[in-house]
Amino acid sequence: MVPNPKYQNKPLEFWANIKLLSQHIGYTDRNTTLIKIPKYSEILSTYDGLNLSKEKLLLKDNTPSAYMKSIVGYFKYRGDILNSSVKNLLMNQKEAKKEFKLLLNKLTPFCPLPMNKQKGKMREHAFFTCMINMLIESNLKGKKCNFDPKELNTFTHCNRPGIVMARRVDGAYPSTLNPKTIWEIKEYYYTTTFGSRIADGVYESLLDGYELNEVQKTLGISVKHYLFVDAYETWWELGGKSYLCRLIDMLHMGFIDEVIFGKEIFERIPKIVKTW
Known about the structure:
Elements: H1 12-25, H2 40-49, H3 66-89, H4 93-106, H5 127-140, E1 154-157, E2 160-164, E3 171-173, E4 181-187, H6 196-219, E5 224-230, H7 232-237, H8 241-253, E6 258-261, H9 265-275
Parallel strand pairs: 4-5, 5-6
Antiparallel strand pairs: 1-2, 3-4
Helix pairs in contact: 4-5, 5-9
């Protein structure tokens, strides 16, 4: 998923409203279990409860202002895209394993095919990561790529260290020295609860986005930042919906260039890699 231009370059106040209202009104509709789309009355009630000024939300005749309509419009967009599209793109463990085997038989990969961190019967290949690696490798056609960076991304200026990122990422092209592209992969097929480790993974990508924006601002270096996400049960059934909303927000705030959900990898990776 790429950002909708209509909701890019919004001021910080707009995103403050989105986050604050999401927190107080809720991310999920309890009756339908789908992503919630707040009503005007809920927004006004929340403002009243927090003793906030409604000046920008209402016109003199107490009808919704264009600003209020833009807030609700974004909530509707976010809810619709998650409820109707992303939900159906996410794979479960069986689907991912099947697609992994099909791709493995189709290609002759030399890239890393890592195992997951589970034990016993759940010890398998990290299906999503393996498929992403294979698809990137097959479309790079021999070009250099680091599929398993074990060092921090470093950006130089005048052949001297300029900015070194705070954490290691899951992939970098062509290398961790002045990469043109970096990516993170969040697959959690065997998770039984949506815990803090998964939530931390979302905030790690936010940190990466902040740092890459600083790289652009300070050094004038533009870096593409991709986030790959999969596991239907974890993200949709075990409490991950609010974090899916946060991902859509981060995408439109400019901290990620694209979030690729589940089965999107088969269509998007070939197109993305061609631009590298």
